């Protein structure tokens, strides 16, 4: 009877130790939950914000209209040779003024925001309104021409 108790006891001990080894191995072998990849190719940090004012270009239309208006106004002054001189002077001054007004009307002003992307590249975005962000803010470039502020 002693023969059957020891082998039975040994079988129980072996079974328990095998179960423990399997349980420990299973917990050690379970891979950690993989972190979701945050691969944002258009995310970065604002490096600079510049205000740009681009001068307008005259097409000549402003000079023509200004010259005609200046000539008409200049013609109202003087008589004889004085009238001719004031008409010519008025046309010249009007042409210069008309050209300057046309350039001023056609000037463009905007903000250029330079973003240092996470991959090391730089990308610039132009905006007509002053951006609500500041240098050092984390942003995402949306559709290539808009900025979205990211939580830090």
In short:
The protein is an alpha+beta fold and 152 residues long. Helices cover 44% and strands 24% of the residues. It folds into three domains: 1-30; 33-55 and 108-152, RNA polymerase II/Efflux pump adaptor protein, barrel-sandwich hybrid domain (OB fold (Dihydrolipoamide Acetyltransferase, E2P), Beta Barrel); 56-106, no CATH class.
Structure description:
The protein is of the alpha+beta class and 152 residues long. The protein has three domains: 1-30; 33-55 and 108-152, OB fold (Dihydrolipoamide Acetyltransferase, E2P); 56-106, no CATH class. The chain contains three helices and five strands; from the N terminus they run αβααββββ. It has a five-stranded antiparallel β-sheet with strand order 3-2-1-4-5, with no helix packed on it. The chain is rod-shaped and about 80 Å long.
Widest sheet: strand ordering: 3-2-1-4-5
- How many DSSP H or I helices? 3
Low-confidence stretches: 18-37
H and E order: HEHHEEEE
Number of beta strands: 5
Q: Structural class of the helices, strands and pairings? A: alpha+beta
Largest beta-sheet characterization? 5 strands, antiparallel
How much of the residues is beta strand, in percent?
A: 15-25%
């Amino acid at each position: 009877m002693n023969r059957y108790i020891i082998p039975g006891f040994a079988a129980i001990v072996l079974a328990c130790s095998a179960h423990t080894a399997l349980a420990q191995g299973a917990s050690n072998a379970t891979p950690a939950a993989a972190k979701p990849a945050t691969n944002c190719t258009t995310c970065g940090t604002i490096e600079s914000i510049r205000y740009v004012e681009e001068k307008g270009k005259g097409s000549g239309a402003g000079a023509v209209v200004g010259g005609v208006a200046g000539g008409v106004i200049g013609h109202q002054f003087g008589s004889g040779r004085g009238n001719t001189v004031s008409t010519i002077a008025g046309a010249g001054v009007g042409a210069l003024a008309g050209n300057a007004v046309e350039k001023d009307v056609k000037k463009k002003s905007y903000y250029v925001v330079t973003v240092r992307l996470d991959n090391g590249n730089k990308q610039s975005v132009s905006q007509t309104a002053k951006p609500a962000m500041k240098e050092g803010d984390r942003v995402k470039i949306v559709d290539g021409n808009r900025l979205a502020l990211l939580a830090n």
